[in-house]
DNA sequence: TTAGGGTTAG
């Protein structure tokens, strides 16, 4: 198709570029033709080639082509920045920016949105500060789009107050700026702040749209606020906001994250349009809520309906197998992925982590270890963490220690792993080793996350820490707790002081065990909620064994369902039994 | 001829 020696006209080359836009080999040949064509319009052809290369993601080649250009204009620099952002190559962006400065090319209003986003991706805080200064120097700070990117950058760096300050001082914020801020709050785990700004937005009479609704539903899912979530959606409906499949998927997810599989299923059946995200959300949600049978049934139904699963769907399927201890099924699904010709279904690290979790939970620790060794990619902290978790469950001190040593190399500052290791030692009664881990954590300044639980009541979320006495109803809560403890002790409840899953916090005296955040939250729920309604408790960390036993007894004593979401999964307590069947 | 916002997983 490509003539070898005859020089081609610009039009022909341009046409060729259009038709070979996604064929790397062809692009290379055309590139050579452009260079030897002797045409005076090389830059416009190279621009076209550059765009094609960015499209197919060959950023190295794109950079090479860019470097061959004669004095590229700013928009070309911007095009390359855009490519780096798209393909998440922030470091290359910074290098390019430096080159731009060296060559005295003035960035324009379009440059900074890309560059600031690149810095967000890079995640190096001092860099963010420096780039903000550059933006100010070039006078682009007041530009809405740049300011929005800056706000998002600060938020992603965890600089909440700076982000808020910047956002507040933005003049003439439009809907997109509000949505961006609310979305980034949710993405960074600051859902309560997102809620606050949603109310502010309403107070400022800014009309929200479907983007706002999605972020809010997502925030409510994170917070476990079923009431607020329903309220936001109803309001959106009343105001005539278009509730497309993305909104409905977000609503599905909100229901599932609040532990209401009934609401989710009802909606799922009613939905006019369902895509792979809808199905995956349901499967993942069922797995999270401990209904593995339903998750797998849905997966089969999905295939019968000819919906192609994606890698998230398989994460849900594998996690369903893991929570139900279905080792053989898990292996079978994993091999379906491994054998698939679909490049998108190749098992990723997360799938390997799921398999390690599945094997490990079922006590097949050696097999899990072997599985890791045979992985085609370098195991990361998540993989070792899964094995360490399994070692904790099965009190495998020796392997646990080995894994912990490896983990310290991969992820030295993740407190959760240190806590797991110390739990392993504690369960084995090796208190001297426990002390060693603890003092190491202190020395390294490893932060442990403070545990808290929350309950939503009348559109407000009530938070509790361990031994919390700040709630207005403190007196009543503690009295209720004492009353229940007395009653369930008579039913046979014994505090589980030597729990495997005890967090650093549970290491305190037994008296503090009885004041764990989830117990306070349950007591609060018993005082305030309507009889017959389930009590929904959300916990930011994994729940401890004692609270698990406690909740079982309370559900039997009071005939109320307790739905507790911890960091990993749900526990639905009913009449003394937990849906997790002790498998967590 | 370019720029800011949304759903599943982590």
Structure characteristics:
584 residues; mainly alpha; Serine Threonine Protein Phosphatase 5, Tetratricopeptide repeat; DNA-binding
Please give the alpha-carbon distance between the first and last residues. 61 Å
**Percent strand:** under 5%
Number of strands: 6
- The SS-based structural class is mainly alpha
What general outline do the C-alpha atoms trace?
globular
Order of strands across the widest beta sheet? 2-1-3-4-5-6
Low-confidence parts lasting 5 or more residues at pLDDT below 50? 500-507
Radius of gyration, taken over Cα atoms and rounded to an integer in Å: 28 Å
Largest sheet: 6 strands, mixed
Average pLDDT: 90
Helix content class: 55-70%
Treating each run of at least 4 consecutive H or I residues as one helix, how many helices? Answer: 30
